[in-house]
Amino acid sequence: MPDQDLYPVPPEWAKRARVDATGYEKLYGRSLADPGSFWLEQARRLDWIKRPEIAGDWSFAEKDFRIQWFADGKLNVAANCLDRHLAKRGDQIALIWEPDEPGEEPRRFTYRELHAEVCRFANVLKDQGARRGDRVTIYMPMIPEAAFAILACARIGAIHSVVFGGFSPEALAGRITDCDSAFLVTADEGRRGGKRIPLKANVDAAAERAPALKTVIVVKATSGAVTMHEGRDIWYHEAAESVPATCSPEPMGAEDPLFILYTSGSTGQPKGVLHTSGGYLLWASLTHELAFDYRPGDVWWCAADIGWVTGHSYILYGPLANGATTLMFEGLPTWPDASRIWQVVDRHKVHTIFTAPTALRALMKEGDSFVAATSRQSLKLLGTVGEPINPEAWRWYYDVVGEGRCPIIDTWWQTETGGAMIAPMPGATDLKPGSATKPMPGVDPQLVDTEGEVLQGATSGNLVIAKSWPGQMRTVWGDHNRFFQTYFTTYPGKYFTGDGALRDEDGYWWITGRVDDVINVSGHRMGTAEVESALVLHPMVAEAAVVGMPHDIKGQGIYAYVTLNSGETASSDLRAELVKWVRAEIGPIAAPDKLQFAPGLPKTRSGKIMRRILRKIAEGDVSSLGDTSTLADPSVVDDLVANRVV
Ligand code: WTA
User: Domain named Acetyl-coenzyme A synthetase N-terminal: which ranges (predicted)?
Assistant: First the structure.
């Protein structure tokens, strides 16, 4: 069992929070005992055009497999995030934008202004022919126009597919093609940590391999030089000049698609995770309110990129549905120095910051003086997401950043789950460093062994979710069968998360990490299969196997084993070239940290690569490789061990 240090709920939190310990037990109990009435009641937090009369309608069994929530309800997600706030908080700041350059002025938008900007963007999209159900790819830097574009899609019922700005043209082209997206929104360039990212040039390169693409809307962000392609590319600022600042929201069914977000799995190419309108928004909004005890007037900062699910649910949809002031940061936590993030907190009087353990570890390494140089008195809660947080980083966050005043909200969830699934509530849950603590209402986690037997009591196993919840993904875009096969066949009748977990004597959940071939690099999901396919595309590479390895800052790093075609010679130049190759094929986040040339890979007689051995070697744990006698050629292991990259 892990370290069981307990940080009890501070008395003032127990008193003033929305939910205290008894409240949590009641809420959670009801959510599972009487889900129908519980969820219809929760649905009242949204503004419906037609209020739903049915809550969940689902089955994870193969013969009547279906997942639907509030299916008879109608709403518009953007209207829920904007229009309904206008009467009460039209003049409240909805969005604060903090630029990359610390000296530059932030931009602020009230709900009324954000509403107008989103309507304008929606009208430009409509003028370009985008309609309900069309896919719009958004490949944007962290600027307010990214938020306008996303919400504009929701307003007109188009399906957005946001592609992280750090992905390569190749990766972008694959995502455009997979969902057959005719429209794309981008900017001339992005900025991050003082560097420029040539987004428009990347789009031009992607477009050559993505014939589906017909229209590119370009936002002028840096005024960097770009080439505009006649008949395909238009400047947003020119198109927006002549459009009205109102646009009536499209009435959508609760089960109409809201967005696609590509994410890595253990096999094949990234999957287009599809979320729908009603259940997703309800989940983002409810979890934001409960886990972070959100109160009107709080300044909320989720420091994720809009290109990941965390940015979708907790920069935009959850906080805006709740009428919050949400902060969007263009820059990097460590640039110009490791004080930046705390300076931004002070500048905007941030109440809650939500970030990833990898960022905390990077900041922790720089020493406490960068934190101590700032006030941070506005902070009342500290959130974390994306990977297991090691207790050292947890304590540093708690003691140094929060000075012992701010509970830590460690939220476990996934692109597939739409929002937080296991997370504390600050007025209800005693904290244990490194544990995501307890399930949210409606979430029924279980541990199973490899045979699918449900395990009881304090133990570890594979984490499954036994019941559907409103924020659950509905399908893999274009491949419903892959959806079912990926998540519901390993343990029939249950949603398999791909994570391992431990449940302790107090019923606390500790996520131990992926049990499949997905690695978590700096809180970003990367499929080993994707990196392997990129490597074998190189003309000199015969075969590649990729595994995760422990990394001080990133959590996990990427370790690649590469077998060259016969006749090719390994060299440090070729190693550098292959790393560069992967960066170009997928993006910098996929670049191997270590690359070992391997004359042979450890395979069983039936040709299956034994990754267990490769993982051990990558970890440097070569004394316990286990039984290698079943390998087709056990001698390859000696070579791998002897030439391990340290
Ligand atoms: C991991 C990010 C431990 C986990 C929201 C999951 C975590 C994967 C935590 C999903 C956490 C996320 N503690 N592990 N608090 N949060 N993970 O889809 O392995 O980018 O399966 O969603 O990140 O990554 P994704």
Answer: 24-81
> Alpha helix (H) ranges present in 292-339?
309-311, 318-321
Neighbours of 271 (CB within 10 A): 26
Cα(90) to ligand 1 centroid in Å equals: 35
Q: Is 164 in contact with 140 (CB distance < 8 Å)?
A: no
Q: Is 475 helix (H, G, I), strand (E, B) or coil?
A: strand
Identify the CA nearest to 561 among candidates 589, 580, 542: 542
Write the Ramachandran bin of 555: left for phi over 0, alpha for psi from -120 to 50, otherwise beta: left
**Residues 2/510, Cβ–Cβ less than 8 Å:** yes
For residues 439 and 286, what is the distance between their CA atoms, to the nearest angstrom?
13
State the complex-level ipTM.
0.99
User: What six digits make up the tokens of 391?
Assistant: 């207790």
Q: Is the dihedral of CA 80, 81, 83, 85 positive or negative?
A: positive
Q: Which atom of ligand 1 is nearest to the CA of 416?
A: 18
How confident is the model over 214-269, as pLDDT tens digits?
999 999 999 999 999 999 999 999 999 999 999 999 999 999 999 999 999 888 88
- Interstrand relation of 135-139 and 93-98 (parallel, antiparallel or unpaired): unpaired
Strands 445-448 and 459-465: antiparallel
Ligand 1, CB within 6 Å, residue ranges: 263, 308-310, 385-388, 410-415, 436, 497-499, 511, 513-514, 520, 525
Closest of 99, 140, 125, 95 to residue 113, by C-alpha: 95
Q: How confident is the model at residue 71 (pLDDT cuts 50, 70, 90)?
A: very high
Minimum CA distance residue for ligand 1 atom 14: 387
Residue ranges of the annotated binding site are 192-195, 310, 386-388, 410-415, 499, 514, 522, 525, 536, 538, 541, 583
Task: Give counts: helices (H), strands (E), the chain.
Answer: 22, 31
Pocket test for ligand 1, best of 283, 411, 412, 516 (most atoms within 8 A of CB): 412
